[in-house]
């Protein structure tokens, strides 16, 4: 049985079943005693120590019994003490895992080079690690313990907070595995933590193996909204909801892209109003010809807000705050998704998220115009299929073909806006 012991000024020690024991300064003796305690723990087959079992383990840790014939119970070695339960203040370590995580949180919160959103998210994730994992001395925080904590998230446990139920999502677990990787890197530079950590333990691809049968089926398909469902949403008669809908269908925007849309990225003058911008996620140039409904609702938003600078967000909340933002406590506020979910529930349609508007539009375009134009529509950085990836370094994207595709999409979705029958589309548009 392989044992990993950590060095400490007061002796060799090991945590077994959340109880810490000291085994002495001699490594060979310490390893032998630790193996006996570890074996006793496994022999019990229990989730916690019983009083008799704990007393027996303490005797083994101090060398009592025929295991260590040189041990004299009447004259114990003062340099070979036994630590009690982790809550005892006398033998508690000077630096604990939670203390180190708190220092890392403080350091990130004061780093002005990081975005506010990332700092808030990191603070929330680190707080969750403190909530889920027990506090222990950094001397006990070895590779074996770290691997167990990472595997806790790989197994997709239940949500640790009461406001959510069920199994943690894959993305939720990925965030916390990533935070363990960042924290251990910082720990090595801050405290000289000398444990060599193979990066393979942070491989989150293992999460895919824990998908349920239902989740695997869902992951293999792309559910989309039916046209009749989009019509029910449009008939909710909320100007703000309609603005979100047309930006999701016309331009393939999701919540964060709507929140980040700047005034200077919208061009309403000229024969063909467009939005032209770099997508924040991929830094790929995108350009979308706007439908009359999109132009009308954007005009309405501009008139409501008055004079704006080109680098200001086009759409904000009634209080002038960003649509998607992070609070100081690490909570993400998504007003776009909240409004959409509210109206979706009242309309009684499929329980799909706002991001499925982009998938609905992209799927329709792909079926009619092919994967390349659909890729241009969603501003993906990598080409689809057998297209030469280097060709985009020498040519421009086919925005003219995308404009044709979005015009066709508007005809396809004409029942949503109620202006004509798509089977007899004449190219008419609603007046601005």
Which features characterize this protein?
hpI Integrase, Chain A, disordered C terminus, 16 helices, elongated, 3 domains, single chain, mainly alpha
- What's the architecture of the largest domain, going by CATH? Orthogonal Bundle
CATH fold field value of the largest domain:
hpI Integrase, Chain A
Could you say how many structural domains there are in total?
Answer: 3
Whole-Å distance between the termini?
A: 77 Å
CATH class of the largest domain: Mainly Alpha
What does the average pLDDT come to? 79
Question: H/E series, N to C?
Answer: EEHHHHHHHHHHEEEHEEHHHHH
Rg on CA atoms, Å: 30 Å
Within CATH, the superfamily of the largest domain carries the name Intergrase catalytic core
What is the percentage of strand-forming residues? 5-15%
Largest sheet: 3 strands, antiparallel
Residue stretches low in confidence (pLDDT < 50, at least 5 long) are: 66-93, 421-432
Structural class: mainly alpha
How would you characterize the overall build of this protein?
The chain is mainly alpha-helical and 432 residues long. It folds into three domains: 1-91, no CATH class; 97-219; 227-424, hpI Integrase, Chain A (Orthogonal Bundle), CATH 1.10.443. The chain has helices spanning 27-44, 51-61, 97-109, 116-132, 143-154, 170-191, 213-219, 227-234, 239-250, 255-260, 292-305, 335-347, 356-369, 371-377, 399-412, 414-417, and strands spanning 12-16, 19-24, 266-267, 274-278, 285-289, 324-326, 332-334. Strands 3-4-5 form a three-stranded antiparallel sheet. The chain has a two-stranded antiparallel sheet with strand order 1-2. The longest helix has 22 residues, at 170-191. It is elongated.
């Amino acid at each position: 049985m392989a044992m990993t012991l950590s060095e400490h000024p007061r002796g060799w020690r090991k945590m077994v079943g959340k109880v810490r024991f000291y085994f002495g300064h001699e490594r060979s003796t310490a390893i032998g005693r630790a193996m006996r305690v570890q074996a006793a723990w496994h022999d019990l087959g229990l989730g916690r120590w019983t009083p008799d079992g704990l007393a027996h383990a303490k005797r083994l840790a101090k060398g009592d019994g025929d295991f260590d014939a040189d041990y004299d119970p009447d004259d114990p070695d003062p340099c070979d003490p036994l630590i009690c339960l982790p809550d005892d203040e006398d033998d508690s370590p000077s630096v604990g895992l939670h203390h180190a995580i708190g220092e890392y949180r403080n350091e990130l919160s004061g780093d002005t080079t990081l975005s506010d959103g990332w700092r808030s998210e990191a603070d929330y994730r680190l707080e969750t690690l403190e909530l889920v994992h027990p506090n222990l001395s950094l001397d006990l925080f070895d590779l074996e313990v770290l691997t167990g904590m990472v595997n806790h998230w790989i197994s997709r446990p239940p949500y640790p907070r009461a406001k959510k139920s069920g199994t943690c999502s894959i993305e939720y677990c990925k965030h916390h595995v990533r935070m363990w990787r960042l924290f251990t890197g910082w720990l090595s530079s801050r405290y000289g933590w000398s444990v060599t950590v193979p990066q393979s333990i942070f491989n989150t691809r293992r999460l895919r193996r824990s998908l349920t049968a239902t989740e695997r089926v869902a992951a293999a398909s792309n559910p989309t909204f039916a046209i009749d469902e989009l019509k029910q949403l449009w008939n909710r008669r909320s100007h703000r909801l309609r603005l979100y809908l047309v930006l999701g269908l016309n331009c393939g925007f999701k919540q964060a892209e709507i929140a980040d849309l700047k005034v200077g990225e919208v061009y309403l003058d000229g024969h063909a109003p467009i939005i032209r911008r770099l997508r924040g996620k991929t830094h790929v140039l995108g350009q979308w010809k706007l439908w009359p409904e999109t132009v009308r609702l954007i005009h309405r938003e501009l008139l409501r807000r008055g004079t704006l600078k080109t680098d200001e967000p086009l759409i904000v909340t009634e209080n002038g705050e960003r649509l998607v933002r992070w609070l100081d406590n690490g909570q993400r506020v998504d007003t776009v998704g909240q409004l959409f979910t509210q109206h979706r529930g009242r309309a009684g349609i499929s329980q799909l998220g706002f991001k499925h508007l982009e998938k609905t539009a992209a799927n329709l375009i792909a079926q009619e115009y092919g994967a390349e134009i659909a890729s241009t529509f969603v501003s993906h950085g990598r080409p689809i299929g057998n297209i030469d990836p280097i060709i985009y370094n020498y040519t421009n994207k086919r925005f003219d073909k995308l404009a044709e595709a979005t015009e066709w999409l508007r005809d396809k979705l004409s029942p949503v806006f109620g202006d004509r029958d798509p089977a007899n589309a004449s190219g008419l548009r609603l007046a601005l």
